[in-house]
Design brief:
With 369 residues, the chain is an alpha+beta fold. The chain has seven helices and 24 strands. It has a four-stranded antiparallel β-sheet, with helices on one face. The protein has a four-stranded antiparallel β-sheet with strand order 5-6-7-8, with no helix packed on it. Strand 9 (139-144) and strand 10 (150-155) form a beta hairpin. It starts with a helix and ends with a strand.
Amino acid sequence: MPDKRILTGVLVFALLLGEMSGLPAQQKFLMTIDNLMRGPGLYGYEPTGVRWSGDGREIYFLWKQAADAIDHPLDTYVVNRDGSGLRKLSDEESKLAPPPAGNHTRDRKRTVYSLDGDIFIYDFSTGARTQLTKTEDNETNPAFTHDEQHVAFTRGGNLYVMALATGMIEQMTDIVAPGATPPTAPSGFGRGRGGRGGGAQSNAAAGEKKGTDSQEFLKKQEQELIEAVRERTRLREENEAKRKKEHPRKPFQLQQRQSAARLDLCPDEKCVIAMINESSSDAKPQNVPSYVNESAYPEDIVGRTDVGDAQNRVRMAILDVATGDAKWVEPDVQGRDIQLQPPLWNEAGTEAVMVARATDNKDRWILAL
């Protein structure tokens, strides 16, 4: 298959030749400031997202005309491999076209991708698109598992795995946002109708904080004296013990200024690689005022921090799928502050390497995980 950069260059050259061929031969380009500052209106836009059709007969790409407005979205085009038959696709045709990006199977026949917050699989051999999810949640970063029989994706800050054969979805992590309280029981657990005490009261008791010594004494005395309270407590404790037995994984609590930037399932599906972004509390961004907006008042556009100011940090945690135990990856690289990138696994899924970059951008390392 031809190199994508060469393919893109050929497309740009052919498209520009087509536009220039309509200019009169005697017309000359005037080297004026107005002409030079036309930008894409002068030299056009570069095609992006270039990809082949499944049979290799057509080329799809994203592009817009030089005369289009600067904020006009890119349209999807298709052209035959010999350069003939260039046409713009409709919105419906664009959705059915091969996706510009995705995670491929090893034989390159299928790819899984996210579109408008839902997960799809595209089959290059048949040109068929299969939708896996259709929810109000935003599902991102889909990828085939190592056996290619499941698809892992991120939803609501946690990693899920869907079995392609049955459609069953399993949650692989319990990541809790900063300041949020970890759930004490699965949704609906112990909420059956007719049960003593009621689910709401049981959940409230499970999440109740410990009081003072006198308050704890009165609570204990209340349990000993009142049969209903004692029975309710017994049921709660049984439910909690059953929950811990059936769901032994403990939550991973994010701290203040931490966020899960990316979640990737390990090839053996026993762990999850979590890239945790830690924002600095001391950094001060260079905000830029925006005067042209719908509110009619100046609004700040958050900019980058100054060079040398405190930088955000990217750390890596390995989360055990079964237990929820977290192990932080802390490579000792000459005592330097570093930023970590997601690991790259070998074909067998048994070994991985990752890139570490010094925060001051002066050094870079390749490390074995």
